[in-house]
Amino acid sequence: MNWGVLLFPGSNCAEDCFHAVDKILGKPVKYLWHKDTDLGDVDAIIIPGGFSYGDHLRPGAIAHLSPAMTAVKEFAAAEGLVIGICNGFQILTESRMLPGSLLQNRGLKFLCQDQSLKVDNADTPFTSEYASGDVVGFPIAHNEGNYYAAPDTIAEMEANGQILFRYCSPDGEVSDGTNPNGSINSIAGIINRTGNVVGMMPHPERSADSVLGLSDGKGVFVSMLKHLEATHG
Amino acid sequence: MEEKIWIKAGLTDSEYELLTKHMGREPNTIELALYAQMWSEHCGYTHTRPLFKHFLTTGPRIVQGPGENAGIVDIDDDEVITFKLESHNHPSAIAPFQGAATGVGGIIRDILAMGAYPIASLNSLHFGHPGEQGHTRWLISEVIHGIGEYGNCVGVPTVGGEVRFSNAYKGNPLVNAMCVGFMKKSEIKKAIATGVGNSLMIVGNLTGRDGMGGASFASKDLEEENDEDRGAIQVGDPFMEKLLIEACLEVFKEDYVVGVQDMGAAGILSSSVETASKAGNGVEIDVALVPKREESMRPEEVMISESQERMLLIVKKGMEDKVNKIFHKWDLHAVVIGHVTDDGMYRVLEDGTTVGEVPVWSLMDAPTYILDAVEPPHLKETMAFKNEQVAQPSDLNKVLVRLLSAPDICSKEWVYRQYDHRVQMNTVVKPGSDAAILRIKGRDKGIGLTMDSNGRYCYLNPRRGAQSIVAESARNQVVSGAEPIAITDGLNFGNPEKPEVYYQLEQSIIGISEACRALDTPVIGGNASLYNQTPEFGSIYPTPIIGMTGLVKSLDHITTMEFKDEGDFVILIGETKEELGASEYLDVIHNLVSGDVPELDLALERKAQDYVLDIIRKGLVRSAHDLGDGGLAVALAESCIAGELGANVSLDLDMRADALLFGESQTRFMLSADETSTDRIVEMAAIQGLEAAVIGRVTKAKTIIIHNMDEKLIDISVDECGTAFSTGFDKLMKTDS
Fold first, then answer.
1. Cα(A150)–Cα(A179) distance, rounded to whole angstroms?
2. Where are the domains positioned within chain B?
3. CATH number at residue A134
4. Do residues B57 and B73 lie in contact, with contact meaning Cβ atoms separated by under 8 Å?
5. What Cα–Cα distance (Å) separates residue B104 from each residue in A29, B136, B191?
6. CA-CA distance, B208 to B228, in Å (whole number)?
7. Suppose B578 and one of B69, B210, B459, B659 were both cysteines; which one would form an S-S bond, judging by CB atoms 3.0 to 4.6 Å apart?
8. pTM for the full predicted model
9. Is the confidence metric ipTM above 0.90 for this complex?
């Protein structure tokens, strides 16, 4: 079961994602290079956070044009698991692999804090370790995490169970007051229609190593692993 | 009469005379520019170098002391950390966003040049009180934005530091940034140009006219006319820096490079002079080979440009293409601009023609000055302060609330939530605690990181003030479970040519040295930023800033300030004296900066720190907190707020209530522990001859109650304290406050 972490110039959470798979899951993982058109033998792809191409133009706007992203699209079309975290989410919306876009935080400032999330849909390959309604803690660290999509798109996503995580208070209340960045419907993470491509602003890898006092994020990786094991035998 | 060219360049008559003697002739304009930069305070440490002899710079854990891009300390298992701090005060006063951002970038490259991966940044910021002033608020906002933008993008977590306020910094804010790197001992690189014929390669950014003369700009007073020096401000590109880090570390893995130097102040010039001087060699650089972003730059402009995100590599002859190949992978260039020679000359060429030539040693031989020191006149009055001069306020609850919301004490979450403090996944104890703690991956150990200062203390007693800062830094390490290892110091002062400023500088350095010897924390490098004064606001407070690292020998030792459990005993270690002088309380409540700095017995401090670290390592302590700004009451409130618990304590001290609650007597710690451990803690203190008083208990009721000699002094809800603490900074930054 091989995992790949896609490396762009400016990716700065690649090593953290690598660490989560290598040390926390204990599974084989390798870096994928943005200039490569052939990603080789991988079963799941993580597009890590950071500032690919320095966020020039718009976060993710340049990265999505890189050769490797063509290969990622093909991989996803063949039902491969892809998760984009933070800048990875922005790259996935820029490449239209996920709907909507990520605007600047409504407070107009970069925001790094430990954040409570409510699991909205636990019936996916990325969230099966949780129960719907669970409150989990993941750190966030972003300047453009304010999720937006057109109202009919949002309605469709809501109806299809495409919202995976919402920002909430530590006791699970979802409200405008517990929304750190102004995301529509407090959306923190979404999944595509076919259920194999996820984008999320919070960092599950940063809460995967219990030494750091946070361990809720491990569930995302374990969920993916179980799905891979079940489908790949 | 026309101004002499060397005066215009920033050199004195006697310096000019000296350099013509060194050269045996008059310099041309290019050669003059070389001396002007290298002999500035910023590069040549002309005023501070003679004072550095006081510092202890060696010790069992010191792998590299001062003299390289950064110092190195041993953290066992053949692993080392390297760290240094640097000021970017003058650029930040004029262009706060870029000034602060490039300060972060510069210090990260110093760490990179040692061969290390940068794993953490900290910063110490000093501003005037915003009050009604939109300008100060703008400075604060932009500096913090600049630090965040650079650090976040480059992927180095900003894990700690401090933000302090006094109108002494109104015209001249201080921005000091510290970076810490990690590597194996075998990976250490040096800034040395060995091997005649080896190539000098410039890597990273293009060279432009930005940052022209930054070193000499930093070495004069900040005046209105300095707006003309705007060209001396550099522009940062954190994306380029990130690529530079990745590419350099990939190159360092191979055996291609003999020396590395960051290009900081005075750019290509100072980086190449320093590497050549260390090897006793000469170098030859052809400015025509330097990749530029601007046309028709003069040779001296190319040599002293401070364009950011550039490094100098000394590459083994024949390996240039291999180096270039790795940089090319990261879409960067690595270009040969010259080579190492055996004649000891620093030679500048333009298209193959020599345009300047001076002895390398002479550029490194900046004259030093030992100036007159005179005790500042204000000390006569401030030292004569008596507690009786101020009346004790009747409502002490109110005083506590005001102190908790005071700019120096209140929560800095407004600041650090703009910094990515978790990237790289090593941050175990995040900003807002006594010390930040990072784990070392794959090991059961960590490092403690702190940055501390107290300009008011040093203004009122430069020597003991400086001692106190080192002692406080070490206390912050110890209460977090770390053994203090070493320091880097940032010497921020006014114009040393003023005798009272030189006195402050000299006394502060002596104070730092004394404390470092007592606490076994050698000085492994640092930075001097002098001439921090403006015509309107005068000199800044003398502000030595101490960046300290400590070793957490097991992650089990990590201890934090918040109370953990209802019923735990609260223990006060150390003696509380009737000391109000120099306190935050006097400043905030009585608007008075006066009195002497609290007494400090360095031998006792050492003993108390060893003891506290010992009981922490034995697992006896649930929470530990240093008593600092705002004294006992503030420390108790902070432990309650962070733990969301209350405390009920009683003391029995015959003294003024305000001194007891808010005085800043040194060498004190507040601990909490369960009953069995408390007994042992008290016993062990008695054996050491240290004072340890069980003063009360942690309560589930979220109230802070403090009695003294049966009189109730404080009775206030933790929530009220918490709100004051957490909203203080927001209020400061709101324009309508």
1. 19
2. 1-39+191-366, 51-176+444-556, 384-410+559-737
3. 3.40.50.880
4. no
5. 32, 21, 20
6. 18
7. B659
8. 0.96
9. yes
Task: Using the Cα atoms of residue A66, residue A67, residue A68 and residue A74 in order, give the sign of their dihedral.
Answer: positive
Task: Please return the burial class of B226, using the count of CB atoms within 10 Å of its CB with bins 0-12, 13-18 and 19+.
Answer: middle
Q: Does B51-176+444-556 carry CATH code 3.30.1330.10?
A: yes
Subunit contact A9:B243, Cβ cutoff 8 A? yes
Interface check B417 vs A, CB under 8 A: yes
For strands B79-87 and B174-184, give the pairing: antiparallel
Cα separation values, A200 from A21, A57, A182, B44, Å: 17, 21, 15, 50
- pLDDT tens track for B10-36: 899 999 999 999 999 999 999 999 999
| Nearest residue of A to residue B153, measured between CA atoms | A51
What the block records as the tokens of B25 is 């002739």
* CB crowding B97-113: b at 16 or more within 10 Å, else e: bbbbbbbbbbbbbbbbb
Write down the residue that tokens 């960590």 correspond to.
B446
Instruction: Tell me, yes or no, if B143 comes closer than 8 A to chain A by beta carbon.
Output: no
Question: Are the beta carbons of A112 and B555 separated by less than 8 Å?
Answer: no
What three-state secondary structure class fits A169? coil
Residues of A in contact with B148 (CB under 8 A): 110
Give me the catalytic one of A94, A129, A144, A205.
A205
pLDDT bracket for residue B737 (50, 70, 90)? very low
Planar angle of CA B672, B678, B681, nearest 5 degrees: 100
Domain B51-176+444-556 in the same topology as domain B1-39+191-366: no
Contact residues, chain A, for B237 at CB < 8 Å:
54
Q: Is the CATH number of domain B1-39+191-366 1.20.58.480?
A: no
Average pLDDT, chain A: 97
Residue that is written with structure tokens 């004051």 in the block:
B724
Q: How far is A211 from chain B (nearest CA, A)?
A: 7
B positions 231-270 inside 8 Å of A (CB):
237-240, 242-243, 246
- Report the C-alpha gap between B184 and B188 in whole angstroms: 7
Closest CA–CA distance from residue A153 to any residue of chain B (Å)? 31
Q: How many CA atoms lie within 13 A of A70 on its CB side?
A: 7
Question: How many domains does chain A divide into?
Answer: 1
CATH node for B384-410+559-737: 3.90.650.10
Distance (Å, whole) CA A12 – CA A49: 6
